[in-house]
Amino acid sequence: MGEYLNPDNTMEMDFSSANTVLMSIDFSDTKSFDQYVFGKLQSAGKKYGIGGYFEHRAIYARSEVFVTEQSDFRNIHLGIDIWTESGHPVYAPLKGKVFSFQNNAGFGDYGATIILEHELKGKTLYSLYGHLALKDLEGLELGMTLEAGQAFCHLGPFPENGDWPPHLHFQLMWDMMGNWGDFPGVCSQREIEKYRAICPDPQLLTGYSPG
């Protein structure tokens, strides 16, 4: 098992449009974005940043990955992000098996992505891990069993992680909606209720609660 997230080592990060400081950051430049994230953590004396579940985000104009049409821009974040140094291990929150994995390459995308399948009280739950190290895809097999608490991947560095400051995109889904190897991590305002029914709050599985 890894280190538990708690108020002593973790701070909540705000990437919503309410955070006016974001207007002064060039998010199209990953190094500037990285300096902002890790500067915040260093100033607060924290190892981890967390947050983002159904957050209306101000940072997605950095990449065309999130554009459908200008009138239907995808900027509602469906999972949570855990920001920390690249190479940090990620642990399975529940017993499960490997459902799919692939490299969703491209600026602003997930990069290396693993999706696990779990059985929870008679229902199937899927968990997605994005922005991983490419080496984590080597040796994986579909259906491979993972125990709860088992380390199975690591945060990737930029640019191989989709060109983001190192962090884990962690998302839960009750329904894969026909997707394999990938799943939308953001939605438009029009789709909020649809995705809220599919994507429960993954922070419940991190053990973290604000102090």
Automatic annotation (TrEMBL):
Entry keyword annotation includes Isomerase: no
Keyword annotations of the record: Signal
Gene3D superfamilies per UniProt: Glucose Permease (Domain IIA) (2.70.70.10)
InterPro entries cross-referenced by the UniProt entry: Cell_wall_metabolism_enzyme (IPR050570), Dup_hybrid_motif (IPR011055), M23ase_b-sheet_dom (IPR016047)
Top-level taxon of origin: Bacteria
Domain M23ase beta-sheet core: 76-174
GO function terms (MF aspect): metalloendopeptidase activity
Keyword Signal in annotation: yes
Short name of one Pfam family: Peptidase_M23
Protein name: Peptidase M23-like protein
Organism name: Cecembia rubra
Higher taxonomy: Bacteria, Pseudomonadati, Bacteroidota, Cytophagia, Cytophagales
